[in-house]
Amino acid sequence: MEFDYVIVGAGLSGLTLAERIANELDEKVLIIEKRDHIGGNVYDYYQNDILIQKYGPHIFHTKEKKVYDYLSQFTEWIDYEHRVLSCVDGKLVPMPICIDTLNALYDLDLDENSMQEWIDEHKEDIKEIKSSEDVVLANAGRDIYNKLFKNYTEKQWGTSAANLSSDVISRIPFRFNHDDRYFEDAYQGMPKDGFTKMCERMIESDNIHVGLKSDYKDYIDRIKYDKKLIYTGPIDYFYDYKYGELLYRCLNFVWEIVDEDSYQEVAVVNYPNDPYFTRITEFKKLTSQKIDGKTAIMREYPGFNGEKCYPYPTQEYLDKFKLYEAEMEKEENVIFAGRLAKYKYYNMDLVVKDALEIFEKEIK
Ligand code: FAD
Questions:
Q1: Does 10 contact ligand 1 (Cβ within 6 A)?
Q2: What pLDDT, in 10s, does the model give residues 36-66?
Q3: Are residues 334 and 210 in the same domain?
Q4: What is the interface pTM, i.e. ipTM, of the complex?
Q5: Containing structural domain, residue 129
Q6: Structural domain tally of the chain?
């Protein structure tokens, strides 16, 4: 068979590009995927009748109406607003920090004004914010840092927050109100039948063919395609690690079926001070699935082995990526898309937005 495009990777970036090429241009696409399933990181499946997300909790949220409308062609949505609690000193307190976090943590009765006074009394005077540790000390002070951030960050990244650039933590908001939602975006929800079903509907076209359990390098020389290769895999692998490996912080996901109706109050509870895992997700609370007597939970164990999750935020690896980026810019017959090729943490909506823009600007 001959194709117009070959796409490496069946994650949301590859699937969005395949869908656009097949349905709008009526051209033939082959998707080659290394894993035994489509969906990339958003893949979900039934385990003991409970829908679980294999690569950790994924909640759709976006400010971009265009992205929401695009994905809404392939799924209906369940209304869901994400709330996270953090287990500290035996208490469950809302994250990100809002008035109720401080009230619960310190048995206070603060309101919007007195929260500001409390913060002013406790925050440290840091002249120049250089690290993630500085961000929290300057915003909330040392006790909050020690209770909620220090161990969590160290565990998540394998190094102290004092060694991480300020932008790693500055993305976490501090709210001087009672808003305990994790995301503030206008569009938030979970796909009604799960992410995998949504992904399957994206590639229903007869123009799209999928080869699973296949590394593209084993096949690419034998495949006939007359337009471009679209690559959404790791960029260092594409260039045979010529500038060395790009480091990722990885996660190991360990799920468990518990014989209870409910395991915890909300879908995600953080355990900043557990020595090993960072958080527990209870999937029924994400998906609103009704099933009695059992529930599925998942613990996340960070490390340098496991699923590649977060590009490592140090200058050494950003510089290394720049060397690869210079090579990417020279390619005429390859289009790069997605989190692994761009060595960047993207939320789902930005991956889809980026793919839609690539289609409009570079393919159509
Ligand atoms: P991927 O989904 O990684 O897809 C790339 C695909 O390429 C993979 O399937 C891979 O197997 C395949 N591949 C790689 N190499 C090869 C090869 N050599 N040959 C063939 N195939 C190959 N975003 C949100 O919006 N909300 C969330 O709540 C959220 N939670 C997250 C939680 C975690 C723990 C993580 C790590 C990410 C989360 N994200 C979330 C981000 C989301 O996972 C990504 O934005 C999205 O999945 C990226 O899609 P992608 O197609 O770029 O990459």
A1: yes
A2: 999 999 999 999 999 999 999 999 999 999 9
A3: yes
A4: 0.99
A5: 97-170
A6: 3
